[in-house]
């Protein structure tokens, strides 16, 4: 994997949706995909953050992106079906999706997890990913070489004390990725997960407040793997790509 960097404009005329595109890893991925020629659909909760990424992409002279301000907590399956229709009408295609937005919830013993925290984290991290994927699959199926990427975590394959709802949501996300990869085993759609590993973002800082962020990789450091996963060079299907191998 990753022996060759993708060619500079390998995403030219491709349309890619990135969730959580206003901050952290999603922001870096949106910029990286735009730099390689993609028209990026920036989905996220905070409009100002999305506008800042939009401005940065335009200032760099990359293809003009689109903004979808959407709080995944309140979004319904109908919102995703409407979004899929709008993407089809405006762009006529969808080549890739990076499911990246997530929320951490409270880190606490499982017996203490509140109903609200459970439902919030499951809604944002899992239910929204499921409903959005269902709505977007018809468009991805039509792409010459569609790519569907899910974001998981080390606690999504090995349970860890106090990571309760977040960890459980990531186990389920990884399961969704595997089920879909098997369903599309004989189809041009490529389905994988990415585990970014410890990365210098707001989410990491809220999970590890005492940690020195300078010791962590930045979102930009991970972009070779995010680009590879979106590229025709990607040979994996149904796998979790580890962005920071040990
Ligand atoms: P950040 O908290 O920096 O960014 C998360 C993004 O998701 C933000 O853009 C945020 O938007 C968006 N988001 C959160 N809640 C919602 C919502 N309800 N509706 C819409 N958008 C929402 O996190 P990271 O960049 O660190 O994480 C990116 C992915 O990587 C996540 O899936 C995370 O689980 C995973 N990950 C991260 C690791 C790390 O060390 N950083 C390690 C392992 C996995 P807004 O800013 O507007 O709230």
Q: Which of globular, elongated, flat, extended, rod-shaped describes the shape?
A: globular
As a whole number of angstroms, the C-alpha radius of gyration is 17 Å
- Helix and strand content put the structural class at alpha/beta
Ligands present = NADPH dihydro-nicotinamide-adenine-dinucleotide phosphate
CATH architecture: 3-Layer(aba) Sandwich
Strand order of the largest sheet: 3-2-1-4-5-6-7
Q: In whole angstroms, how far apart are the ends?
A: 15 Å
Count of distinct structural domains = 1
> If helices are DSSP runs of H or I spanning 4 or more residues, what is the number of helices?
7
Protein name: YciK family oxidoreductase
InterPro entries: NAD(P)-bd_dom_sf, Sc_DH/Rdtase_CS, SDR_fam
Keywords: Oxidoreductase
Family: Belongs to the short-chain dehydrogenases/reductases (SDR) family.
Write the layout of secondary structure elements.
Elements (H helix, E strand, L loop, with lengths): L14 E5 L4 H12 L3 E6 L2 H13 L6 E4 L7 H15 L4 E4 L15 H28 L4 E5 L12 H20 L6 E6 L6 H6 L15 H8 L9 E3 L4
Parallel strand pairs: 1-2, 1-4, 2-3, 4-5, 5-6, 6-7
NADPH dihydro-nicotinamide-adenine-dinucleotide phosphate binds next to helix 1 and helix 6.
Structural account:
The chain is α/β, with parallel strands linked by helices and 246 residues long. It has one domain (15-242): 3-Layer(aba) Sandwich (Rossmann fold), CATH 3.40.50.720. It contains 7 helices and 7 strands, in the order E-H-E-H-E-H-E-H-E-H-E-H-H-E. It has helices at residues 24-35, 47-59, 77-91, 115-142, 164-183, 202-207, 223-230; strands at 15-19, 39-44, 66-69, 96-99, 147-151, 190-195, 240-242. Strands 3-2-1-4-5-6-7 form a 7-stranded parallel sheet, sandwiched between helices. Helix 2 links the parallel strand 2 and strand 3. The protein is globular and about 50 Å long. The mean pLDDT is 96. It binds NADPH dihydro-nicotinamide-adenine-dinucleotide phosphate. Residues 20, 22-26, 44-46, 49, 71-73, 100-103, 124, 151, 153, 196-199, 201-204 line the site of NADPH dihydro-nicotinamide-adenine-dinucleotide phosphate (NDP). This is YciK family oxidoreductase. Keywords: Oxidoreductase. It comes from Fluctibacter halophilus.
